């Protein structure tokens, strides 16, 4: 991927404070047309009382807030010392200058992708990186590939005699390492050589960070229009959404392609993660969201979870104090993942993600309000947008045409397309000359017309599922 473009304020003003101020001013100026549009629509709210208008204003306001935070206030913790720090940073123990780091991976039936993934881990420029791979009872030849790589690269391979699921498999990997930092990735991913090192640098430089997420794009973006649309969408979800959350140290999902945790921020909660249950049944999804939740919320729920699993070696062997960790995002830590190129696997992936969203809402949603106003607004406004999405789609795409109010349908679709164009322009500014920005409005329309309907289905089938991915 091309490196982020250097912009004029980074060279025109040598003083960091001046550069930061110029950047924030420029972002406000660029967002001014949308701010005026929001103000115009907000004036109509008291007179019309239309819930759809209120929903549209809320979505536009949330988009503006995320863009302002991502472009005006976000800083890469691997590159600079962050301005927004805890009031008592001394309460967080510093990592060693050169911490011990383990890269952990669980795999099941990924014979076509696993070698490329492991070799990218082994190619890391971080000295002394320990690599542990758990084969969760693969039956397609994955085990033979891992054995060959074990002999060649000196990695640790754990072969399970029965399928345990991704979370249980990763916990097995955590049990065999004493690393200070645990870096997770997925078996269909490829890491940049400096990705893990950059995440570790962020954790060392900022002791208050208990976890960080890398920046993910599609590895197979050239495989078709759907993959290209997802690639552009991934860029926005990381570059804008995670960057905005990172400003408040409250990234709600340290995503699986590159999720890096301090050991003392997560180790005691691994048995709770592996044994997570929802609505009376084991929950095998939400691997990355839920694990992030243990870091974000342990100041309020950590002691109770450790008491519940008091006999687990992960609790008896080490007892780490509950801290109000921050969770960040490292834009310069690049990773690529294989995305579904066909509609069927894409829809199944989205259903899994929506189940994860639902389960996590009942966990992280119970304490995110304690993280501060900024973090709470971003988290709960996004949750409200997702939950109300099916109702808005039904009202505008089904109810309105049946009641001779087709203009509402056109207005709604125009609003969705406008939001997609805004995100597309953001992509275009970050990647000058890249024409894939045009896929972003299409992704917004696809999300509205098709993906919103998946939430009710995910709710009805939330107790069902396995962790193995569908073929792309």
Plain-language structure description:
This protein is of the alpha/beta class and 472 residues long. It has a domain at 89-338: Spore Coat Polysaccharide Biosynthesis Protein SpsA, Chain A (Alpha-Beta Complex). Helix content is 53%, strand content 11%. It has helices at 9-12, 16-48, 51-72, 114-122, 142-153, 166-175, 195-205, 225-247, 263-266, 270-274, 287-308, 313-316, 343-361, 373-402, 406-430, 439-449, 454-460, and strands at residues 101-107, 130-135, 156-159, 181-184, 189-191, 209-218, 259-262, 277-278, 281-282, 326-337. The strands form 2 sheets. The chain has an 8-stranded mixed beta sheet, with helices on both faces. A hairpin with a 2-residue loop joins strand 8 (277-278) and strand 9 (281-282). Helix 2 runs antiparallel to helix 3, helix 3 packs across helix 14 and helix 15 packs antiparallel against helix 16. The chain is globular, with a radius of gyration of 22 Å. Mean pLDDT is 88; it is low at 7-11.
How many separate helices?
17
Pick out the low-confidence regions: 7-11
Percentage of residues assigned to helices: 40-55%
Q: What radius of gyration results from the CA coordinates?
A: 22 Å
Mean pLDDT rating: 88
